[in-house]
Design a protein that fits this description.
It is a single chain. The protein is an all-alpha fold. The protein is built from twelve helices and no strands. The termini are far apart.
């Protein structure tokens, strides 16, 4: 644990996380290194290891924050309405995910590496945020879909959550990938995050 006030520790952690997020906009997960991250902070590579042991821990911290932001959105949606139809619930879930492209990208592409190469305490902190997202969606279903019993809600959660892990690769496609699909003769229609999430949620709630 680095010496200094909790405020300084948190500020430096946030600076490291922000630097990594900046790099991830234009670089791949495998090409980002601790040394590269350090170039975007005000301190050295050696100092980063006082806060994160691996780059995977940094990415896991980013993913944790994305889950926390999604949970906050879901709770706000639940608290802001007295009633919703199942179609409105599906739309609300889809809109909440539409705002979280980074969440979907990380969970679909690098989750195994992040979890495998992070300390148990960091992984536990992340799992709390993940668990809160399950509870938040379940809370929406309890409030707005009273006809769904515990078994029905659990069936929704364990169908919808695995589905959203695959949304990003189906919605964010490079020009190279599109060209390859055309050359291969694959008549594929590209959908948005909202369209895929809404379609899945609507069908599961039907």
């Amino acid at each position: 644990m680095p010496k200094g006030s909790p405020e300084l520790t948190n500020a430096r952690r946030e600076e490291i996380i922000a630097a990594c997020k900046t790099l991830y906009k234009d670089m791949s997960f495998k090409d980002i290194t601790i040394m590269k991250i350090a170039e975007y902070t005000t301190f050295s590579r050696a100092s980063i290891y006082n806060y994160f042991e691996t780059k995977e821990e940094i990415f896991l911290a980013i993913l944790q924050k994305e889950y926390e932001l999604w949970v906050a959105d879901l709770k706000k949606l639940t608290d802001s309405a007295d009633a919703m139809s199942k179609e409105e619930v599906a739309k609300s879930l889809a809109k909440s995910l539409e705002k979280r492209a980074l969440l979907l990208k990380l969970m679909s592409m690098n989750l195994y590496d992040m979890e495998e190469n992070s300390r148990s305490e960091r992984l536990c902190e992340f799992k709390v945020a993940y668990g809160d997202s399950l509870k938040a969606v379940d809370g929406m279903l309890k409030k707005f879909c009273p006809d769904m019993d515990d078994k029905a809600r659990q069936k929704f959660l364990y169908s919808f959550f695995p589905f959203i892990y695959g949304i990003y690769p189906y919605t964010v496609v490079t020009d190279k990938q599109k060209a390859a699909m055309e050359q291969a003769g694959v008549g594929y229609r590209f959908y948005s995050i909202y369209e895929l999430a809404f379609t899945c949620a609507e069908k599961l709630l039907a």
